[in-house]
Each structure stands twice: as C-alpha cells, then as structure tokens.
Specification:
alpha/beta; single chain
C-alpha cells in the first residue's frame, strides 16, 4: 500500500508514522521547517498508543507534487487546515496522475462540507472522509503526540458508495495502534464530531483553557448546553442526523464520556490562536451559522463565539 500525506501537522505526522510502522509506503508533501525536520530526523509518534520512530530517509518528502511518480498512490490523506482545501484540490487535480485510477482521497479534517472543494475536480467515487476524534498535538515539526482518544477513526463516504475500498487503509491504521474502522454512515459520524468540536473548540479557545476546564463551572456547562441545543436545532431544520435523537441524549454521552475522555486536550482552535495562525472556525461554527441562516434558526450562543474567535484572529 502506498500513501501520500498532504498536510504534515499533528494529524498528518501521526498518521504517517502509524502507517509506516506497519509496512505501508509513506510519502509526505511538506514544506519549510517541517520538510527539513523530517528529512533530518525522520518521524516520531508518542503518547497514548505508544512510541513509533521512523528514521530519517525511510519516507519520501517533497514540497513539489510533481516530484512524486505517476500511478503511485492508493490513498492520498488530506490533513491540511481547511482554509487550504481549494489550493490543495487544484494542485492535486493538476497532478492527479500520481493517484492510481482506483485510488482514494481521504479527508481527515474538522468541520463540514470539506468534500466540496475536492468534488470540483474529482468524482464522488474518489472523495472519502474520516471522522477523527483522537487528539494529536505536534511537539516538534516531525513529532506528533497522541494526547486523548475517545472513539475509533471512522472512514467512509458521504454518497452511499461502497466502503470496501477503504478497508485496507482502516486495517493498516488499526494495526499501527490507532483504532480505526469503516462506516456506512460517515455523515452521522461527522455531525457527531461537529457537535463535539463546535461545543468545545471555540469556547476553549476564547477562554484559553483545555476541554475539561469548561465543565468545571455551572456557567460553562450552561454555555455548552446552549451551543448543543442550537446545533441540534440546525441539524433538525437541515434534515441532518447523527447518533442521538435529542440534545438531552447527546448531553448524557458528552458529559458522561466524551468530555472526561478528552479532559486535558487543548483544542486545535486554541493551539492556532496561541501560534497566531488562522483557525478553522469557518468550517466549524461558521458552517452552523450558514445553515442557521439558510433555515432561519436562531443561534445566538454560536454566533457570539464565532464573532469572538474572528475578533481574536483580527488582532494578531
């Protein structure tokens, strides 16, 4: 199996080390300091699922899509920030010959509607999505630390197509130590992740705290309850579904399992703000607001958090 990783942040580095550790051929599209660090020091995954070390020189690393051979890859894993999707989609299409005819793009990102940028060029049969609810943090440009985990990575597509072609990838990730499986309903999984991310990411980022701290005060719980209620109202209006029928059902799972399991994690939004980088708020809470406007649903709590994150970004 040959895999190209596009996006060498915490998730990309972690997945690259995981797949290489079980014998997959791994190539990386990386630039700048990250490229230099991988070339000089290889890759390393640490944390919950044990340490994996890939020595320098065992993976191909380039900042040029044209450097990769044609008909090379079974899977291209896309873990760039969502703001880069149009640019990446255009570049991949320009060099689409590097993907085997039956190869798949697999989007490992937060948010909703990320597939749309890739469907501009690629057919539905090649565009797949992953729900990742494992927490990765980059300790160095070539080191990814798995900090929290609450459910397996789920691979699938949003168009009712056969998920069997994703089984080899799921099995490889699982064998590499990160629980992973395919699903026939990745849309429900992505909306479960939207509920989780949109409740925790912007609030933790604005307050500057890890996930667990948000549940330590009744006022924090009240804000999260409002966010959950609003997102469910939007989902209902837009006729999207997830694993829980009501906000109250979700809150039992959220406060009983999801929040405790990821208690100490700092959200990617908070990590971006601390580094003074653009956040992915537009593909998280921003998508909730877009749907709310389309279906005339009032979402004041989500709107306020979105505005606060955008104001922080504007003042870097």
């Amino acid at each position: 199996m040959e895999v190209l990783i596009v996006g060498t942040g915490a998730v990309g580095v972690g997945m690259a080390a995981t797949l290489h550790s079980v014998g997959c051929g791994v190539s990386l599209l990386a630039r700048g300091a990250t490229k230099d660090a991988i070339l000089a020091g290889g890759l390393r995954r640490t944390g919950l699922f044990g340490e994996v070390v890939i020595p320098a020189g065992e993976t191909m690393v380039s900042d040029d899509y044209g450097a990769f051979p044609e008909n090379a890859f079974d899977y291209i894993l896309i873990s760039v920030k969502t703001m880069a999707n149009k640019t990446v989609s255009d570049a991949l299409w320009e060099h689409h010959a590097i993907l085997k005819p039956q190869g798949k793009l697999v989007i490992l990102q937060n948010g909703w509607d990320n597939d749309q940028a890739y469907l501009r060029h690629f057919p539905q049969e090649q565009v797949c999505c992953a729900r990742v609810i494992t927490g990765f943090q980059r300790q160095a440009p070539n080191v990814s630390n798995v900090t929290v985990h609450t459910a397996p990575v789920l691979l699938g597509n949003l168009y009712g197509l056969d998920v069997a072609p994703l089984e080899p990838l799921a099995q490889a990730i699982n064998a590499g130590g990160i629980p992973c499986q395919t699903t026939e309903d990745v849309g429900a999984a992505l909306w479960a992740k939207m509920l989780y991310n949109c409740t925790l990411n912007p609030l933790g980022a604005v307050l500057g705290v890890h996930y667990g701290a948000l549940g330590e005060a009744p006022e924090g719980v009240a804000i999260m309850n409002d966010l959950i209620d609003e997102i469910f109202a939007v989902m209902t209006a837009a006729e999207y579904r997830t694993y829980w029928d009501t906000p109250e059902d979700y809150k039992k799972e959220f406060y009983g399992k999801l929040l405790p399991d990821t208690y100490h994690h700092n959200s990617s939004t908070l990590q971006d703000i601390r580094r003074k980088r653009p956040t992915e708020i537009d593909t998280l809470t921003g998508k909730v607001l877009e749907l709310a406007a389309q279906y005339h649903v009032s979402v004041p709590a989500n709107t306020m958090l979105y505005r606060q994150v955008k104001t922080i970004e504007a003042n870097y």
